[in-house]
Amino acid sequence: MMKNLILATLGALTSVSLLAQTGKTPAKPATKPTAKPATGIVSTPTLQLKTLNDSASYAVGLSIAAFCKQQSIKKLNNKLIAKSINDVSASQPFLLPTPVCDNIIGKLFSGQKLAVVTPNPASKALIKTPVDSASYAIGLNRAMFFKEQGVPNLAVNFVTMGLDDVLGSKPGYFDDRTANFVLNKVIFKAQDDKIKPTVDAGRAFLENNKKRPEVKTTASGLQYEVVKEGTGIKPTAIDTFVCNYKGTLIDGTEFDNSFKRNQPLIYPVGAVIKGWTEGLQLMPVGSKYNFYIPYELGYGPFGSPPAIPGGAVLIFEVELLDVKQHKE
Description:
Helix 2 (about 50-70) crosses helix 8 (about 175-210) and helix 3 runs antiparallel to helix 7 (about 155-165). Strands 1, 2, 3, 4, 5, 6 and 7 form a seven-stranded antiparallel sheet that branches. Helices cover about 40% and strands about 15% of the residues. The protein has helices at about 1-5, 50-70, 80-90, 100-110, 120-125, 130-150, 155-165, 175-210, 260, 275-280, and strands spanning about 215, 225-230, 240-250, 255, 265-270, 290-295, 315-325. The two termini are about 30 Å apart. It contains ten helices and seven strands. The chain is α+β, with helices and mostly antiparallel strands and about 325 residues long. The protein is elongated. It has two domains: about 30-175, no CATH class; about 195-325, Chitinase A, domain 3.
């Protein structure tokens, strides 16, 4: 388990295209912005995106359109796209259950022929064609994804405008790079608000902890405590370490323990979270240290759910058993 927990992350969402969650390169709108907006709000002579949420909503429309173009979908029912988004935002009953929508999305990916799906009276009244089924499923899928990422209240008119601009081959108001910038800005703001109590508690803990004479603090903010000093070599960033460890949160909650499993971790020093990479290089083989790792050197604002919440300070007891030196 811990191998997954302490591996270096990929910078959360900033390194991932939010326009296409399929692993493919999204199609770009016809035009590019002259400059990336500093605020995340984009205005043009004919369209006023007055808030960050307006810009994010338009970007979500581009996201949906990118997915549709990848799947060669040329036509959607905008009313059902809008309804699915509103249903998610307002936590209303869905016309199509989530598993049904997932099945439709799966068929789109695999190129299977779609049928009309109407599992309840409400859906029968509004869904008449395979395009209708696909439209609701796609809108629901995207709306749920972005709600989970912190974009809960989309402006439907801007979503459908972004959708129409791409599918209608109209000049886009901004390109995929700007769209990702806008969405990341919204998502990180929402995440910052969500994790603030955890971050505040962690900072208070570290502030008190560094007052203890046995605790040392590095320039990066990593705190460490020497429990036992070894006499062996110290690893470098290109070496591989062998260690046992126990990881806890500041409230004492234990999320992993290799001592109990009697299964040391063997992994490259440079391939783990920053706090470990730095801390391990301070330790001679045979040492046992305690690391107190700020979230910026751990799993950042998004954490590593479910064990590690976003913004959490991590406490590790680490025993360095061996170093496998890198050889050219």
